[in-house]
Amino acid sequence: MKNFIEIYKKIKAVSPEHHFEFTDDPFWILITTILSQRTKDKTTDEAARSLYNKYGDCASLSKAKSPDVKNIIKNVGFSNVKSERIIEASKIIKDKYGGKVPDTHDELVKIPGVGSKTANIVLSQGFKIPAIAVDTHVFRVSNRIGLINARNPDEAEEALKKIIPPEYQIEFNPVFVEFGKNICKPIKPRCQICPINASCDYFKSYYFEKNKK
Question: The pTM is what?
Answer without folding.
Answer: 0.90
